[in-house]
Design a protein that fits this description.
Layout (H helix, E strand, L loop, with lengths): L1 H29 L8 H20 L3
Helix pairs in contact: 1-2
């Protein structure tokens, strides 16, 4: 049972980290790059954060 709770916590932590990275990307895009904010930009920012997490997790090979 504790392995299941650990796995759930790890997956939630990854989603949270992707959200934080996505928020940083969104802030950069809407701030210095002067893109208009939208739901599409927010979703793409979150996806880029998630992709970065996956790249770091899997490694170069």
């Amino acid at each position: 049972m504790s392995n299941l709770l650990g796995e759930i916590a790890l997956r939630l932590a990854k989603a949270g980290a992707a959200g934080i990275l996505g928020a940083i990307v969104y802030a950069i895009a809407t701030g210095p790059l002067e893109e208009p904010g939208s739901i599409g930009l927010a979703l793409l920012s979150w996806l880029s954060g998630a992709a970065f997490i996956l790249l770091i997790q899997e490694g170069p090979i």
